[in-house]
TrEMBL record:
Protein name (database record): Urease accessory protein UreD
Alphabetical keyword list: Chaperone, Cytoplasm, Nickel insertion
Cleaved signal peptide residues: none
Gene name of the record: ureD
Primary location: cytoplasm
Classification lineage: Bacteria, Pseudomonadati, Pseudomonadota, Alphaproteobacteria, Rhodobacterales
Family: Belongs to the UreD family.
InterPro entries: UreD (IPR002669)
This protein's record includes keyword Cytoplasm: yes
Chain's role: Required for maturation of urease via the functional incorporation of the urease nickel metallocenter.
Organism annotation: Sulfitobacter litoralis
Length: 308
């Protein structure tokens, strides 16, 4: 039989003494509701983290890997390439981006080398929970006599997505840069529209430390309606920026304009900097325009990932 343990009241009136142990019976009551809320609270979602560091150098008359570092969900592959250049294909093994994810690339083309970077497939930016935006940061460096080509495939924004993207390019002396940034605001063939999304994009190019190009885009809320205006995108749901910064930029202005559709324009915005912006109803039509442009300004066939 279980015996009751007698207790007595301590002299201070706030404690009970039982079997020589003092208990405080004036402590605040346990808030059952608060503990229940904590038990059923939505846990913090795991976030993707990835970083790549790539550099090239010349060896035996061709460009080869000088340094390679990869971390987290970012990986790089190096298929065989023509024209003596080194091509790196990066991929995000997390399968896409969402709010709070952070990816970064730092690539350097060493003196007199050539480095081309492209993606294995289109990058998808999915619905984000309220809070931090997905972050994609790219820094490219080309030393004297070098060339770096930045040719990622499309970034596709889904409804509810939130992405902040930054591209910084630093050129030394006569170094060359060619870049393409395709962007898709929802897949038209799937009936997707961006009624609520956030997107911020910044591109900066410097030569010998002096800014020679800067462009910024910021869209928030009902992006589909914002792009419908005649002063914005005229209802087009895909766009791309094309930048060519090199001493021979002026000579390529006329050939580039000959390849552009009616919904695009190109300008020599300053000596050595050629810029074009393309609009298209969907990603397929945008790609049809971009492939010949890449072939012309890249000076070689587009990376094989663009042709699959």
């Amino acid at each position: 039989m279980r015996q009751k343990c007698p207790f007595r009241i301590a002299p201070d009136g706030n404690h009970a003494i039982q079997m020589g142990v003092i208990f405080n019976w004036t402590r605040p009551p346990i808030n059952i509701a608060a503990h229940t809320d904590q038990a059923f609270a939505v846990p913090m979602q795991p976030r993707a983290r990835g970083a790549l560091r790539i550099s090239s150098k010349t060896y035996g008359g061709t460009s080869v890997i000088d340094d390679l570092y990869q971390q987290g969900c970012f990986k790089a592959l190096f298929p065989r390439a023509a024209a003596g250049g080194l091509t790196g294909v990066f991929l995000n093994t997390s399968g896409g981006m969402t709010g709070g994810d952070e990816l970064s690339i730092h690539a350097t083309a060493g003196a007199d080398s050539r480095l081309t970077l492209t993606s294995q497939a289109a990058e998808r930016v999915y619905l984000a929970q309220p809070g931090p935006m997905a972050q994609m940061t790219t820094r490219l460096v080309a030393k004297g006599g070098a060339r770096i080509d930045w040719l990622p495939q499309e970034t596709i924004l889904f409804n509810g997505s939130a992405l902040r993207r930054k591209l910084e390019v630093d050129l030394t002396g006569d170094a060359c840069f060619f870049g393409v940034e395709p962007l898709v605001f929802g897949r038209v063939s799937m009936g997707e529209t961006l009624s609520d999304a956030r997107f911020a994009d910044n591109i900066t190019i410097r030569r010998d430390g002096h800014p020679i190009f800067a462009d910024a885009v910021r869209l928030s809320g009902d992006i589909h309606t914002q792009l419908a205006g005649t002063a914005t995108a005229g209802g087009n749901c895909a766009m791309a920026s094309v930048i060519y910064a090199a001493p021979d930029a002026e000579a390529l202005l006329a050939p580039l304009r000959a390849l552009l559709p009616a919904s695009a324009g190109a300008s020599l915005i300053r000596d050595g900097v050629l810029y074009a912006r393309l609009l298209a109803p969907d990603s397929y039509i945008l790609r049809q325009s971009l492939v010949p442009i890449i072939a012309r300004l890249h000076g070689a066939a587009p990376p094989k990932t663009w042709m699959l």
